[in-house]
User: What shape does this take?
Amino acid sequence: MSAVVTVIVIVAAVALIAGAVFLVTRRQGGGRSLERRFGPEYERTVARHDGDTKAAERELEERVKQHGSLTPKPLAAGEQERYESRWAAAQARFVDSPREAVAEVDVLLAELAAERGFPGRERYEDQLSALSVHHAYQVNGYRRVHAAAHGNGEAGTESLREAMVEARAMFHELLHSGARSDGRSRTERKSLTGGRHHQGDTREADEKHRTGARAETGAPSGRGRGGPAWMFNRQRTKES
Assistant: This one.
């Protein structure tokens, strides 16, 4: 009888250990999946939770649950061009009025996101959360310009410029990621980003788009002017 009891105890212990291993493996796999999906946003969320990865992952899982099924809406005909013109006007204004330009970009991104089907600008936190699920590698650009636009005005010109540079990746994603129903956007986005989603992959496209915007608007290159050497030049070093 004691042998039977011993066998039962061993089987129960093995089952408990197997269950524990399964749960740990599942959680680790889920964490890795979230880390891959959210990239830098995962790291920011963990840091905001003071290194508590479980709390951060619960928050990210909740974001996916709430916004993962959202399907961005296509833009109406002519809307891409209208938003591109608004961005070009804002970046041209930056030379003389950087804070006003950043505020314009904040409104521009909020309105563009709402038009694509994300929560509206009056629900900023929900909008940011939804954008982080679908554009995790670019969303911090929007966060930065929003913070600058609604801050206490202490951000310097260089900090504002950097926020605009980072926000441009978010602008590209919202504007070109399946944005038109005529099929053009898919081709445009492929040529602009190579079909990749990481923020670093938009740099070459970003440079080309900036060059085109300067040509269309007559915006100065910044060389030889008293203002910043064009604020979207990624290779620019800080000036006094």
Summary: Residues 79-217 form one domain. The radius of gyration is 23 Å. The chain has ten helices and no strands.
